[in-house]
Amino acid sequence: MSRARLTVEQAGPLTTLQDRGRPGYMRFGVARSGPVDRLAFAAAHAAAGNDAGGTAIEVSLGGVALRCNEGAVGFALTGGDFTATLDGRRLGSWHGGTLHAGETLVVREGAGGNWGYIALAGQPVARDWLGSTATHAPAGLGGGRLDVGQVMIIDNARDCDVLAIAAPNIGGGPIRIVTGPQERFFPADALAALTTADFRPSTAFDRMGVVLVGPPMVPTSLAMLSEPLVRGAIQINGAGVATVLLADHQTTGGYPKIATVITADLDRLAQLRAGSSFQFHAVDVATATGAARTAAASAATYLAGLRTPLSLAERLLSANLIDGVADARAE
Amino acid sequence: MFRAVGDSALLVEFGTSIDEATHLRVLALDAALIAAAPPGMTEIVPSYAALLIHYDPLETDAAAITAAAEACASTAGSAALAPAEHIVPVCYDGDNAPDLHAAAAALGLAPEALIARHLAAEYRVFMYGFAPGYAYLGGVPASLHLPRKAEAVRSRPVGSVMIAGGQCLVTTLPMPTGWWVIGRSPLHILRPEAARPFLFDPGDRIRFRRIAAADLR
Fold it and tell me: Among A226, A283, A287, which would you mutate to test the B interface (most chain B Cβ atoms within 10 Å of its Cβ)?
């Protein structure tokens, strides 16, 4: 088995190593971390032929550039509509290839999305904390942020002959929420605004959360004790501004939560580019649970399809279909 | 009181105040659920007056978790816990206590009187929150209760001992904070490389012991 060495030539501040996450330590103040967009992360590993849940690179709008110094390693890029070049040759988003010694892979902000994933075919060497290499970005624990000049080692590196990667159909429409647990802290007009007004993600986002632009939903009271929070919580501060909590969220908070984004829709919200308009739609817990199960079943089928090697004819067909999707999106 | 939190968590509320009796009920249910984890429960998080139960919606649902929590709550009672006691060394001198004089002035106390009262009290670990290893301690005497400062100060060092309202904590990461930093401890509550990386458990007893600046290492 071979080993590849990469050097980080450029990296935006939100470029980190992530694995599937670190459950079990929220009682000690440690969020689970892991990828902000969990399906795109899983897709990158499946397309790269890796086991699910291993270490991959998460990149945001600041981009990343990786130069291969030694060996060769396959890669799969997924997530938002990032643009990529492999040694100057333009690749689309949702694309794979092999990075050879002397070549550089550059991933840059594209037309949409906030988070991208680069799975490297093999095992990247990453620092483990509490059984996970996921980076808890505010603390810097786990695999860590990628910094310029850093060397990455990939053990058991393989080539990757995947070209275009079929993106999942994650649907669209309103972002579904379950109201509460502190909806009683809000006046009726704030609750009405939550499900009728337009909201937009702001440019204030990171792995902890995204601040929304929308109508003020000012709580009638802030008199509550700090209590544990979930990923997806819509926390409202005293000025009525909403923040949706993401993978590295604070584990407790003392501001009221007007609602919680359902599991099936949270990562789609996190990928919405700042300024994109959307609405919230309230559902009950049973509907949210059903949606989580449906989404998990669809994801499993989709990921199994990515893992199955395709014939050349099927690959070409798949690439054509993807072009079709891209064209449809462009219209 | 049980409240659904999205499709993956259930919040069990025991009250709305910071007191030992309420907290004991939280910890009792916490212990009971750890001892008899219902299928699909992924992790549980105790706080001042509530317990959050995380579950996997692919394996269980809110109704099943509520039923399991109700069954545990009816038998859990108030836990006979055996809390550990920890002695936390603190230096209250000079640059290690950047807000000591302002806090004392705001309270109408001499700095040494503030220190004496802080040292005399016994504290309880109510919960971890916010960031890794941030243990929220209750038990600050009423004569030392101060609201947060109007503006946060950037990047206080690790080990800052600070107070706000009835709470005290020893920081584990450099973070901006609006709390009053009255001392510094060499004790690391978060030890990332240790087999037991979090020094305290919720329910533990804490006392502070004064040390000289020379003993800060």
Answer: A226
For A5-48, what is each residue's pLDDT tens digit? Answer: 999 999 999 999 999 999 999 999 999 999 999 999 999 999 99
Domain boundary among the residues B48, B75, B102 is at: B75
What would the pLDDT profile of A90-108 be if each residue is shown by its tens digit?
998 999 999 999 999 999 9
- Rounded CA-CA distance A221/A218 in Å is 9
Output the 3-class SS for A228-297.
ECCCCEEEECCCCCEEEECCCCCCEECCCEEEEECHHHHHHHHHCCCCCCECEEECCHHHHHHHHHHHHH
Residue B61 sits in the same domain as residue B94: no
- β-pairing, A175-179 vs A64-70, is unpaired
Give how many domains chain B has, as a whole number.
2
Q: Please tell me whether residues B181 and B111 are part of one structural domain.
A: yes
pLDDT confidence of residue B151: 76
Q: What residues of chain A lie within 8 A of the CB of B46, using their CB?
A: 27, 228
* B53 is a domain residue: yes
- Of B188, B192, B170, the residue nearest B179 (C-alpha): B170
Q: Identify the domain boundary among B10, B43, B75.
A: B75
Q: Is residue B108, in this structure, part of any structural domain at all?
A: yes
Does B23 reside within a domain? yes
Parts of chain A with a pLDDT under 70: 1, 309-331
- Do B136 and B69 share a structural domain? no
Burial of residue B24 (number of CB atoms within 10 Å: 0-12, 13-18, 19+): middle
Question: B215 to chain A, minimum CA–CA distance in Å?
Answer: 27
The ipTM of this complex is 0.91
From the list B8, B45, B202, the residue facing A26 with the nearest CB is: B45
> Tell me, what's the pLDDT at A317?
55
Q: What is the CATH number of the domain that holds B161?
A: 2.40.100.10
DSSP state of A29: T
Residues B181 and B93 in one domain: yes
Same domain, B119 and B184: yes
Domain region containing B61: 2-75
Which of B1, B2, B3, B7 to probe the A interface (max A CBs under 10 A)? Answer: B7
Compute CA distances A215 → A198, A199, A241, A274, whole Å: 8, 8, 8, 16
DSSP reduced 3-state for A112: strand
